[in-house]
Design brief:
Blueprint: H1 2-31, H2 37-85, E1 87-90, E2 97-102, E3 108-114, E4 123-125, H3 128-134, H4 143-146, H5 156-199, H6 203-219, H7 223-241
Antiparallel strand pairs: 1-2, 2-3, 3-4
């Protein structure tokens, strides 16, 4: 694209130079009185208008090229900022950047971003697995994109900071649910073993197991179960002391 515009500028410049040379020859003919004043005035206006027109077209192309260069420099600055905080790889052929985000120690995502039209909002290529976790419409609810302003655009890195925060929060909750599920299963097993030990007359073992039940109930912030098994434990300990 840039090469095309440079070629246009060169062609326009050549046209201006040709017109200026023709105008000089025309002036020399006038001085040599080969043409009269009336013809000179008429054709002079045409020459000057043509030169002015081509010069204006050169300026338009130069302005466009300058704007595009500034846009490209903006994109480079944004990608540099992005790469300072996230692992980022840029495909030189397509200009598409791949950003790597970790949601947890085990879960990682690769997100492609086309920011070639920055300061227009970028286009994100969201992996299907992320859609499956967060829902297909989560991307339109990102605050950074919803409040995007072309006049004062946010940095690209802001999008990925928000995405990372959303993913970390989601997987943290998932891990907490899994952890709670494991604790519940362990508590159920302790209760079953404590009752079996109590029925078998092995009260010391039952007391140890009920203490484990209390600890898990505290971790789960399950007050009802905590007080229920605390009472059972106290009654068992009293019974043992009375023997």
């Amino acid at each position: 694209m840039v090469d095309t515009e440079i070629t246009k500028i060169a062609a326009f410049s050549e046209s201006v130079e040709k017109l200026e040379n023709e105008f000089k020859n025309f002036q020399e003919k006038f001085r040599a009185k080969e043409i009269d004043m009336e013809e000179f005035d008429g054709r002079k206006v045409n020459f000057l208008e043509e030169i002015k027109k081509v010069s204006y077209e050169i300026k338009q192309v130069k302005d466009l090229l300058s704007a595009r260069n500034e846009m490209e420099q903006q994109v480079v600055r944004e990608l540099n900022l992005l790469s300072e905080q996230f692992q980022t790889e840029v495909d030189e052929d397509t200009g598409i950047a791949t950003v790597f985000i970790s949601a947890s120690l085990e879960v990682h995502f690769e997100i492609d971003i086309d920011c070639s039209r920055y300061p227009e909002p970028p286009y994100l290529f969201i992996p299907k697995m992320m859609d499956d976790f967060l829902g297909s419409d989560f991307i339109i609810n990102l605050k950074t994109l919803k409040k995007w302003s072309r006049k004062k655009p946010p940095h690209l890195v802001d999008i990925f900071k928000e995405l990372e925060e959303m993913l970390v929060e989601f997987f943290q909750k998932e891990e907490e649910v899994i952890e709670d599920r494991d604790k519940l299963a362990k508590r159920r097993k302790f209760i079953e073993l404590a009752r079996n030990a109590e029925n078998a007359g092995n009260n010391a073992e039952a007391i140890n197991l009920y203490q484990g039940v209390l600890e898990i109930s505290q971790d789960l912030k399950d007050k009802a179960s905590y007080f229920k098994y605390k009472k059972i434990l106290e009654e068992l300990e009293t019974s043992v002391k009375g023997e």
